[in-house]
Design brief:
This protein is of the alpha/beta class. 50% of the residues lie in helices and 16% in strands. Helix 3 links the parallel strand 1 and strand 2. The radius of gyration is 34 Å and the shape is rod-shaped. It starts with a helix and ends in a 6-residue tail after the last helix.
Length: 175
């Protein structure tokens, strides 16, 4: 006990030296504890800008579900093979005049490729395609003499390949 009293007495007499040393020592201990208990540095978050991806839009009506169920998986498969954003819009069954605004909305979304599922969309697509010659369409019934309308391939793999080819060629109306 006597040794402790003499040690503390010496520390108190030389406080101008021992206080800074004690502060540095305590700081080093705290820094060591923080370094040992902290985990690895968090990884930087990688962001992907998908706003410039090629956009493929599928338009179907409520009565064209059987054909849509064959086409939509092929469209989704294309998104895994190229930078493509795919959208599916379902319109209520109606006349060509009633379906045309749905096609115009897809044009305003800057769809590079518009796919029309079902025979109800053949006439509205033909009408819209005449006034938009740079827009590419795929539909189940290709009207004669229309260069920007193709027929839907019979095999889903062929449709996927056609979509990927269109995306790589950059025939997008996206600004």
């Amino acid at each position: 006990m006597n040794i402790l009293r003499r040690s503390f007495s010496a520390l108190r007499r030389n406080w101008k030296i021992t206080t800074p040393i004690a502060v540095v020592f305590v700081g080093a201990v705290i820094a060591g504890i923080v370094l040992l208990t902290s985990g690895p540095a968090p990884q930087a978050i990688a962001y992907a800008n998908v706003s410039r991806n090629y956009r493929v839009c599928l338009l179907s009506t409520t009565k064209d579900t059987a054909e849509t169920n064959q086409i939509w998986p092929a469209v989704q498969a294309a998104t895994t093979r190229a930078p493509i954003n795919a959208e599916h819009v379902t319109a209520p069954a109606g006349t060509p005049a009633q379906l045309t605004p749905y096609l115009n909305s897809l044009l305003s979304l800057h769809c590079g490729l518009i796919i029309g599922a079902g025979p109800d969309l053949a006439a509205p697509i033909s009408t819209v395609a005449k006034s938009h010659p740079n827009q590419h369409f795929i539909t189940s019934e290709k009207p004669p003499g229309s260069a920007n309308i193709s027929s839907i391939p019979r095999e889903p793999g062929d449709l996927t390949a056609a979509i990927v080819t269109a995306a790589h060629s950059g025939n997008s109306t996206h600004p």
